[in-house]
């Protein structure tokens, strides 16, 4: 599985976990069973889930005139994935993580999502 596809799959699962009150471990296991075994996908999902509070703090510190609760679920989920990559996956260049996040935002969010995501992630990196 290509990393772009893995990010998309990770986004779908983490988005569902964000809006539903399911047991994360069970949902992850069920989701990953139905997908081909992909180490990157598994690392993203498990990493974001395990580091969620730290990631949310990093994102919150870099939001201007917003609280994390006010950020739409689509953008919040994408920001979590990208922030995890930026902080914990040193083998991925920052610009790749940001570009992938912007692309996901443009695909799944509204017409302003990509720009918003880019702005927040640029502050995190900067």
Automatic annotation (TrEMBL):
CDD domains: Terminator_NusB (cd00619). GO terms for cellular component: cytosol. This is Transcription antitermination protein NusB. Involved in transcription antitermination. Required for transcription of ribosomal RNA (rRNA) genes. Binds specifically to the boxA antiterminator sequence of the ribosomal RNA (rrn) operons. Residues 4-124 form the NusB/RsmB/TIM44 domain. It comes from the Bacteria. Keywords: RNA-binding, Transcription, Transcription antitermination, Transcription regulation. One of its GO terms (biological process) is DNA-templated transcription termination. One of its GO terms (molecular function) is RNA binding. Belongs to the NusB family. InterPro entries: NusB-like_sf, NusB_fam, NusB_RsmB_TIM44. The lineage of its organism: Bacteria, Bacillati, Bacillota, Bacilli, Bacillales. SUPFAM superfamilies: NusB-like. It holds the Pfam family NusB. It comes from Oceanobacillus polygoni. PANTHER family: ANTITERMINATION NUSB DOMAIN-CONTAINING PROTEIN (PTHR11078:SF3), N UTILIZATION SUBSTANCE PROTEIN B-RELATED (PTHR11078).
């Amino acid at each position: 599985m290509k990393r772009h596809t893995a990010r998309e799959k990770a986004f779908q699962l983490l988005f569902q976990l964000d809006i539903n009150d399911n047991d994360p471990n069970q949902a992850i296991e069920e989701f990953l069973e139905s997908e081909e075994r992909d180490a990157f996908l598994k690392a993203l999902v498990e990493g974001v889930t395990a580091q969620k509070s730290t990631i949310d703090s990093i994102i919150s510190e870099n939001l201007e005139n917003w609280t994390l609760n006010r950020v739409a679920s689509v953008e919040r989920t994408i920001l979590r994935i990208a922030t995890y990559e930026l902080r914990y996956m040193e083998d991925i260049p920052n610009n790749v993580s940001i570009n992938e996040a912007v692309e996901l935002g443009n695909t799944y969010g509204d017409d302003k999502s990509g720009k918003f995501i880019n702005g927040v992630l640029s502050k995190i990196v900067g």
